[in-house]
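Project standup — Tuesday

K.O.: blocked on the structure for the chain from last sprint. Re-posting the sequence here as requested.
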Amino acid sequence: MVRRGYLLLTTGVLLGLLLGLLMARAYAPAPSGSALAKPEKVELVFLLSSEKEAWMNAVKPLFEDYFRRKYGVQLELKLYVTGSHEIVNLILSGSVKPDVWSPASSIWIPYFEKKWRELRGGSIVGGWYPVVLSPVVLAGWEDLVRKYNVRGFYDLYRLAKSGVDFRYGHTDPALSNSGLMALLMEFCEAANKTPDQLTVDDVRNPRIIEVVKTIESKAVFYGKSTGFFGEWAVENGPSAISFFAVYENVVASSAARARAKWGRSLVAVYPELGVLYSDHPLVLVNADWVDEWKRLAAHELLLFLLQPQAQELAQQYGFRPVNPLVPLDERVFSESNGVLREIRARALKPPSGEVLEALLEVWVEVRNPGV
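H.V.: unblocked you, prediction finished:
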């Protein structure tokens, strides 16, 4: 199992791995033996982030039927939906013992592993692989983006320092994955470093903190829901919010409606430093509560989510496929929807767990206290 999915985002290795996994599972026998006799039912506990809920609800009956037909065993995919940070906390506390889990982004995996080692020692991450992609972008009104030549988060600092009046927003990093990724990108652009190069010292650097605090001084709202910002912009227009950090799919679903109501479109800005993908990794659990049938079901779920049927279905919910055999749906990913079909900016690798922890700690210092 590949442990660093970012290395595969733009290479043919992804295809080779996918085909290898498919062949391995196709020819591997089901668990057997007296201790592993075929059960009547397998219950696979899947702890996942809320962004994927609609897609997973659509996938659930398809996968359960697939598993039953292939193995002659009834499978129940039990979905527990919550935020990415809460997923980590639930596993660490033992409140939920998932057989497989999926945060919104792989940036949470090193953070989880660090916390697990400190609490219990070792690791229970058996491997992980991204199943869909949704980059975090800086959304804004097209005329403002062009007028001020906004190409990334650092440009918001430039505008603020030059006295330009604008209204900014993103979700709360302590509650939402997209908010944490936005905060990470603010620090990265302030330090002119990619996330994997960012250090704890950078996060605590007074000069860098000043840049981020200045950007955050323009914030008018924090919250839990990324989708809220798209709806808010569509309903209330440019006077309510100028720029906001969201997942790409929020722009795709909002641009045409904003143009129809306000005569101005919303567009996605893909930062020049690079794009941090919400890559929705499926994390296999290597723990004593995961028996051989659960492990088999978890691997089958991974393969099922990578197959064209599930990848095509994901695009209906604004996710980009990771399977290179599945073409992009140009009805979704097009400039008419405020997004690019082809993202030319480089894909950024996640930071260390220590950096992520430092970001969560410094958030109380850099946030706008009036929001």
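K.O.: great, moving the ticket to review. The chain has a mean pLDDT of 90. The domain at 5-133+278-321 is CATH 3.40.190.10 (D-Maltodextrin-Binding Protein; domain 2).
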